[in-house]
TrEMBL record:
Residues 7-196 form the Leucine-rich repeat and WD repeat-containing protein 1 LRR domain. InterPro entries: Leu-rich_rpt, LRR_dom_sf, LRR_LRWD1_dom, LRWD1, WD40/YVTN_repeat-like_dom_sf, WD40_repeat_dom_sf, WD_LRWD1. Pfam families: LRR_LRWD1, WD_LRWD1. Residues 248-312 are annotated as: Disordered. This is Leucine-rich repeat and WD repeat-containing protein 1. GO terms for cellular component: centrosome; nuclear origin of replication recognition complex.
C-alpha cells in the first residue's frame, strides 16, 4: 500500500498538472486503501476534482470531514463499504459506482438517493425517476404520518427541560419507528431510518417555535449520518452495523450447503405483532428450557437434575419483572433470520446494585442483559446461557482498536452479538426449537466472483441439541451454511488457531471446510474420528503444537489425542489419559473424574477443575507430556499449584483464561467470579495448602424497577477479551453480565 502524498496525487492525476488545486481526474484504484489512509486535509485541497476512482480498495466508509466541492463522479466499486451515510458530505455527486460491495444493502441504495440530492447515475443506470419519487413523494408521505403521530400523542404546549426533552425524543422516535409503515417490506429499514430524521426535525422545529418562531424557516435538517444510532452506538467503531440485512432481501435466508447462495428471494409471511405494556413483540414458538426439555438427557442435563429443586425454589422467590423497554423496543426475529436490533436497545436492562464490602480493584459491572428470553418475556429466568466468546482480530487487516469488544453469546434458541461498551445487542440469530450449547469464532479467507483477491473475514459456528452446526457471517447478516456433525447434542466447538477452516466438535473431530467462495461452503467431513467412551466437555489445542495434539476434558477424565493428518488411520484412540491427585479421594458420593473446566494460561501451563473438587489445578503440560505412561496409558499431571475455589457439586461452571494478562476467572453457584493472577500464584512456594483467589467479585445484584434484587445464579461460562478490558459472565437464569476494567 502506497502512502497518499502530494507527489502520488500529482502522479495519478490526468491531465498532468503541478498543482493539487488544478486536478480534475484522479485514479487511486487498487491501492489497498482504508479510511485512515485517506488524508482529509490533503484531499480537501482538490477543489476542482470532478472524477475520483477509489475502486479495488478496502474502504468500509469515507473519512469524516472530506470536502470535494466539484466532485461529480465517484467509483467505489469492489470495496468493503458498509456505512454509506459517510458519503453525505459529497452533495455534488451526480454519478456513483458502488458495485461489488458485499455489505451494501437495498436500504443503503435508497439512503444514497436522499443523501446525495444530485445523484442521477447509480451503478451505470439512470435512477432519476426513482430518486425523485423517494425525495419528494415518499418523503412527503412519511412527513404526514410522522406529524400525525406527533399531534396525536406527543404535541407539547410548554418548554420541556433537557431531561424531559431527551425522554420525549426517545419515546417519539421509538413509537414512530414501530407504527409508521409505508411502502414494500423491502424498504422497512429505510423507512425507519427516514422517519428518525423526520422525528428529530419535527421536534427541533417545535422547540424552536417556542423560543423564536421566526427561526423555523431557517432550520436545517440534522445530519442523517448521525441520527439512526444513539450517541453511544454512533461512537462504536465496529464492523457490526445495526440495521444491516443481506443485499438481495430484507429477510436473511439460511442457506444450506446443498443450496446456492443465489437463490431467489422467497416472500415470508410476517408473524403477528402483539402489544403488551406499550411494547411491540414478535410472537415466536415457545421452547422448553434445558432442564425441562422432553428430549433425551445429555450428560449436562443428567448431572444438573439434582439441582432442579433449588432452581424451582429460586423461580418461586422471583417476582415478575416490569419491562424497562420503551414502546416497540423489542425486535426479536423468528425463523432463520439474523436480525439487527435497533439502538438504543439494551434488551431488558437491569440496574446494577453492588453490595460488596470490598469494591473490585480492577473490574466493575456495567451491563446486565436478558437478551435470550423466550418470546421476549422479561419474566424469563429459566433459559440457561452456555457459551460466550469474543470476536477475533483480523490479522494484518488494519483492525481499529476496540473491535474485540463484540462478544457472541448463546443460550436457548438464539445467538446474540453484544457490544460490551454500549451494552447493545447488535445482532441476533434465532432458530425456533433449537437450543444452542456451543459456539466458536474463526477467521477464513473469502473470495468473490470477478475479484481474484482473498480477504479475511470472521465467521461464527454454533451448535446445539439437534447436532447441527450453523455457520454465520455476522458482518453480512447471513446464516450461510449448516451441516450435521452428530445425531447427538453438540456441547463443544473449537476452531484450530493455525488452520481456521478446521473445526473440532465433540463427536466428529475435526470437520474441515474449504473456505468461503461467494458465501458458499464445500465440506469434507470426518478427517479424524477420535474414539472415546465419555462425552467431551471442553477441547484445547496446545499453543505450541496445535496441529499435532488435542486435549479433551470429558465427563470421565482428561484425554490426549494425536491429531496429525499425515497418518493413514482416520480413527484414533486415546494416546494417554492424564490423572490428578484428587482422584485418590473418590468414593461412592464423590466423583472427581468430570473435568468441566480447562484452559491454557501460557504455552505450557494448564488450568483445569472438576465440579466437585473445590479447587483449580495449575499443572505443567510440558512436564506431564514428557512423563512415560504406564501400560494403561495413564500419566499423573505434574501439579504446579492448587487454587482455592467454591466447594459445590453443581457441574459445568466453566473457567476461562486470559494468557496475555495471566488471569484465570471462574464463576460459582452464587454468581461470584473468582479471579486469579497466575504470576502471583506461581510465586507462592508449595506448602500443601490451596492458594486463595486474588479477588472474588460479588454478584452485582441487579434490581428491576419496583422489585427486589435478583439472587446470584450459577455462572455457566466466562470470557475475557485479550486485553482484559471486558469480561462477560453467563448465568443459568438468562442473564449476561458485562464487567469492565477500571482504568487506573
Amino acid at each position: 500500500m502506497e502512502k497518499i502524498t502530494e507527489k502520488l496525487l500529482l502522479e495519478k492525476c490526468t491531465p498532468k498538472t503541478t498543482k493539487l488545486e488544478e486536478i480534475k481526474t484522479l485514479n487511486l484504484a487498487n491501492l489497498c486503501l482504508r479510511r485512515h489512509d485517506l488524508p482529509v486535509p490533503l484531499l480537501s485541497r482538490l477543489c476542482c476534482l470532478e472524477q475520483l476512482d477509489l475502486s479495488g480498495n478496502r474502504l468500509q466508509e469515507m473519512p469524516p470531514g472530506l470536502s470535494l466541492p466539484s466532485l461529480r463522479t465517484l467509483d467505489l466499486s469492489n470495496n468493503d463499504m458498509e456505512d454509506v451515510t459517510t458519503l453525505n458530505s459529497l452533495t455534488t455527486l451526480e454519478e456513483l459506482r458502488i458495485e461489488d460491495n458485499l455489505y451494501v444493502t437495498i436500504t443503503d441504495n435508497y439512503k444514497l438517493m436522499i443523501l446525495l440530492p444530485k445523484l442521477r447515475i447509480y451503478n451505470g443506470k439512470d435512477i432519476s425517476t426513482t430518486a425523485n419519487h423517494m425525495r419528494f413523494v415518499n418523503s412527503e408521505n412519511l412527513r404526514k404520518r410522522v406529524l400525525a403521530v406527533w399531534e396525536t400523542s406527543f404535541s407539547l404546549h410548554y418548554v420541556p427541560t433537557a431531561e424531559k426533552l431527551a425522554t420525549l425524543e426517545r419515546d417519539f422516535v421509538n413509537t414512530v419507528c414501530h407504527t409508521v409503515k409505508y411502502g414494500p417490506s423491502s424498504l422497512a429499514d429505510y423507512t425507519k431510518w427516514r422517519v428518525c430524521i423526520k422525528c428529530l426535525f419535527l421536534i427541533l422545529c417545535h422547540i424552536s417555535t417556542m423560543f423564536v418562531p421566526s427561526l423555523v424557516s431557517g432550520i436545517s435538517v440534522p445530519s442523517p449520518a448521525k441520527r439512526p444510532l444513539s450517541n453511544s452506538a454512533a461512537a462504536c467503531d465496529v464492523l457490526l452495523t445495526p440495521q444491516k440485512k443481506t443485499r438481495a432481501s430484507v429477510q436473511v435466508q439460511d442457506i444450506s450447503p446443498r443450496k446456492s447462495s443465489r437463490q431467489k428471494d422467497v416472500p415470508q409471511k410476517a408473524e403477528p405483532l402483539t402489544s403488551t405494556t406499550g411494547s411491540s413483540a414478535i410472537r415466536t414458538p415457545s421452547t422448553h428450557t434445558r432442564i425441562q426439555s422432553k428430549a433425551p438427557l445429555t450428560p449436562r442435563k443428567a448431572l444438573r437434575e439434582r439441582s432442579q429443586p433449588q432452581q424451582d425454589l429460586a423461580k418461586k422467590m422471583l417476582t415478575p419483572i416490569e419491562s424497562a423497554l420503551q414502546p416497540g423496543a423489542v425486535s426479536e426475529t423468528t425463523g432463520k433470520e439474523l436480525s439487527s436490533i435497533h439502538p438504543p436497545l439494551n434488551q431488558f436492562p437491569l440496574h446494577l446494585h453492588c453490595h460488596s464490602t470490598q469494591a473490585p480493584v480492577s473490574l466493575e459491572p456495567v451491563h446486565v442483559l436478558q437478551c435470550h428470553s423466550k418470546q421476549d418475556s422479561p419474566d424469563d429466568f429459566s433459559t440457561q446461557l452456555w457459551a460466550c466468546a469474543f470476536q477475533p482480530l483480523l490479522d494484518n487487516c488494519g483492525d481499529v482498536k476496540g473491535e474485540t469488544r463484540i462478544v457472541a453469546t448463546c443460550g436457548g434458541e438464539s445467538i446474540c452479538l453484544i457490544d460490551c461498551d454500549t451494552g447493545l445487542v447488535m445482532k441476533k440469530y434465532k432458530v425456533p426449537g433449537e437450543e444452542f450449547f456451543s459456539l466458536a469464532w474463526s477467521t477464513v479467507l473469502m473470495s468473490r466472483e470477478g475479484n481474484g483477491g482473498l480477504r479475511p473475514c470472521r465467521i461464527l459456528a454454533a451448535g446445539g441439541k439437534r447436532g447441527l452446526v450453523k455457520l454465520l457471517h455476522p458482518r453480512a447478516n447471513m446464516a450461510y451454511g449448516e451441516f450435521r456433525a452428530s445425531r447427538k447434542p453438540l456441547s463443544v466447538l473449537r476452531f484450530s488457531s493455525h488452520q481456521g477452516n478446521f473445526l473440532f466438535s465433540e463427536w466428529l473431530l475435526p470437520v474441515f471446510f474449504s473456505g468461503l467462495i461467494s458465501l458458499v461452503v464445500s465440506y469434507k467431513l470426518s478427517l479424524l474420528v477420535l474414539e472415546t467412551n465419555s462425552a467431551p466437555l471442553h477441547v484445547c489445542l496446545p499453543p505450541a503444537t496445535p496441529d499435532s495434539q488435542l486435549i479433551a476434558a470429558c465427563d470421565k477424565g482428561l484425554l490426549v489425542y494425536n491429531i496429525q493428518l499425515n497418518k493413514n488411520t482416520m480413527k484414533r484412540s486415546v494416546e494417554k489419559e492424564i490423572t490428578f491427585p484428587v482422584y485418590e479421594m473418590e468414593d461412592k458420593d464423590c466423583n472427581y473424574h468430570t473435568i468441566d473446566g480447562m484452559g491454557f494460561i501460557t504455552d505450557e501451563i494448564v488450568a483445569s477443575k472438576s465440579h466437585m473438587q473445590g479447587s483449580i489445578y495449575l499443572w505443567s503440560w510440558k512436564l506431564t507430556k514428557a512423563k512415560r505412561a504406564n501400560k494403561k496409558k495413564v500419566v499423573c499431571a505434574v501439579i504446579l499449584a492448587e487454587l482455592q475455589w467454591s466447594r459445590t457439586d453443581i457441574p459445568y461452571l466453566s473457567l476461562s483464561t486470559c494468557p496475555c494478562k495471566g488471569y484465570i476467572v471462574c464463576g460459582d453457584e452464587r454468581g461470584r467470579l473468582w479471579t486469579y493472577h497466575v504470576t502471583d500464584a506461581l510465586e507462592v512456594k508449595k506448602s500443601g495448602k490451596t492458594i486463595p483467589a486474588t479477588e472474588i467479585l460479588d454478584w452485582p445484584s441487579p434490581v428491576r424497577k419496583g422489585k427486589g434484587p435478583v439472587e446470584g445464579p450459577c455462572i455457566n461460562s466466562v470470557a475475557m477479551d485479550p486485553d482484559l478490558k471486558y469480561l462477560v459472565a453467563l448465568s443459568d437464569k438468562n442473564m449476561a453480565v458485562v464487567w469492565r476494567r477500571i482504568e487506573s
